[in-house]
Amino acid sequence: MVDRGDYFTINRARQYGKTTTLKALKRYLIKEYIVISLDLLWDYLDYYHLKKGYMLSFNFNKKKELGAREIVLGDKVLVEAVV
User: Fold this and answer.
1) DSSP readout, 51-81?
2) What sign does the dihedral 19-9-83-30 (CA atoms) show?
3) CB-hemisphere CA count at 13 Å for 4?
4) Which residues of the chain have pLDDT under 50?
5) What whole-number distance in Å separates Cα of residue 5 and Cα of residue 15?
6) d(Cα 66, Cα 51) in Å, to the nearest integer?
7) Cα–Cα dist 18/14, whole Å
8) Three-class SS of residue 79?
């Protein structure tokens, strides 16, 4: 799934093991990929009292979509540039 560049969503109620699943996936993927948690970026913005942050994503997929997009969460904005 990751090698093909597919994305997925985990959407369940509380106490279904979402966090445990994502942590296990990270441990598995970190052997071959750089895994970054968006939670860390939001924490960084909070710590430095910033409302806007920037992220550069290197995507080596053949089907990638180049460009920039804004991800909004509450009162914070993360600008992601995909190259």
Assistant:
1) SEEEEEE----TT---EEEEEEETTEEEEEE
2) positive
3) 4
4) none
5) 28
6) 24
7) 8
8) strand
**Burial class, 71, CB count within 10 angstroms (exposed 0-12 / middle 13-18 / buried 19+):** middle
- Cα–Cα dist 57/12, whole Å: 27
pTM score above 0.90: no
For 38-60, write each residue's pLDDT tens digit: 666 777 888 899 999 888 877 77
Instruction: State whether the Cα torsion 70-76-12-58 is positive or negative.
Output: positive
Neighbours of 53 (CB within 10 A): 16
The total number of residues written for the chain in this structure: 83
| Domain locations in the chain as residue ranges | 1-35, 37-82
Q: What is the pLDDT of residue 2?
A: 62
